[in-house]
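JOB MANIFEST
job_type = single_chain_structure
chain_count = 1
residues = 99
[input]
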Amino acid sequence: LARARAFLLKALRPELGRLSSLGVPKDPKSVLQEVVQALGRPSPVYRTIDDRGPEHQRRFTVEALVNGEVLGLGTGWRKVDAQRVAAQQALEHLNAAPQ
């Protein structure tokens, strides 16, 4: 076990170093939260507007709202996935909108 561990650490050391220097990537929901707070706006709200399909294969559609305005729309097999897509779309909308 010790030899296997030593081998893996040696083989992966360059990649581990690169990854640790990049930091932990943030998901779009966290980034959107930070951006709207920096703009002095209220926190985003995620509203499920549709869910279709059988219980085991539900497809969710979610809106990302900031101050009551829909800035993004996302779909996914899980609510959190749909929220992430909606948050990413909202970020793209905010980056394109004049500040």
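[summary]
DSSP finds three helices and three strands in the chain.
The chain has a mean pLDDT of 90.
exit_status = 0
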